[in-house]
Structures are given as C-alpha cells and as structure tokens.
Amino acid sequence: MMAGVGAVTTGAGTDSPWRAVGIFVLLTTCLSAIFWALINLTATVTAIYVFALMWMPGLAAILTCRILGRPLSTLGLGRWNGRFVLIAYLIPLAYCLVASVGTVAFGFGGFPNDGFVRTVADTMGLSGIPTWAVIVLFVLLQGTTGMVAGVGAAAGEEIGW
Q1: pLDDT at residue 110 in the model
Q2: Measuring CA to CA, which residue among 68, 55, 58, 71 is closest to residue 18?
Q3: More confident residue, 144 or 24
Q4: What are the pLDDT digits (tens) for 59-87?
Q5: The dihedral of CA 17, 19, 20, 22: what is its sign?
Q6: Of 47, 69, 26, the residue nearest 160 (C-alpha)
C-alpha cells in the first residue's frame, strides 16, 4: 500500500504530518498549562517557571517523536558546526554593540551608566573596584556563563518550534 500525499513514512508506519502537529500542540499546551497554573496560583513569575515554560515545546517535540516512533534526529539535533556556533554567538554581540553605539551617538543614553555599574558591582561584591574593571568582568561573565544559561533556556523552544 502506498503512502498518501503529505504522509511521512516512519518505522512505525505512515503518519499524517497534521497528526504530528496536533500531538505536538496538544502536549505543548498541556505541559505549559502546568507552569501557567503555578504562575497564576502563586501570582509569582520566577526564573524556574520561565525556564520550565521555555522547555515545554522541546519536551513536547521529544515526546511527539517517541509517540510516533520517529527518530530524534528529525528535530535537527545532528552534528555541530563550529563555524555556525561562532556566528550564532557573535550575532547577538554585534547587534547589542550597534544598539549601544546608536543609543550613545543619538544622545539617548551615556556610557557608562553609573547606576547600572554600581548595581552590578554591589551585586557581585565588587564595590571597591574601578568602573572599567566592573564592566570588563560583567561582559566576560555575561558572555560566558550568562550565555550558557540563556542558551540552556532557549534550547527548549528552539528544539520544539
């Protein structure tokens, strides 16, 4: 028997793409509802709830693959290309730099923002060091650990959608 138009043949037989989309959307909705309910019940939006919400599409995609018997490789989780990883890392830095230069050039803000630098220094326990050192440490930490944390959260959405 031949597969119909638009059907995807997998190890488990023939599945309609619409069935896969329906399962994915249903799972994403149900899984996300857990955390939206917690947010509404507690009237609190925490980093944990946001992180979990961002991972629900990814979890739904993984579960959809398992339910339909599809390999996880269909989600695009193949080999890493270091060149593309570097480009993906540099693009946000580039547009932040353009936005920051534009903000200062057009007089909408100044550099450095003394209030922000003081807040960062106090938060990091670096109150006595020079402004330039606080900025350098902040950029280094945000560009490494901050980037890892951000990518870790966003990966769930990227895998899912």
Answers
A1: 86
A2: 68
A3: 24
A4: 999 999 999 999 988 888 777 788 988 99
A5: positive
A6: 26
**Mean of the pLDDT values across residues 95-113?**
91
The tens digit of pLDDT for each residue in 43-59 reads: 999 999 999 999 999 99
Q: Residues near 67 by Cβ (< 8 Å), separated by ≥ 6? A: 23
Tell me the C-alpha distance between 117 and 140, whole Å.
14
Give the separation between CA 110 and CA 38, rounded to whole angstroms.
40
SS3 labels along the chain = CCCCCCCEEECCEEECHHHHHHHHHHHHHHHHHHHHHHHHHHCCCCHHHHHHHHHHHHHHHHHHHHHHCCCHHHHCCCCCCHHHHHHHHHHHHHHHHHHHHHHHHCCCCCCCCHHHHHHHHHHHCCCCCCHHHHHHHHHHHHHHHHHHHHHHHHHHHHHHC
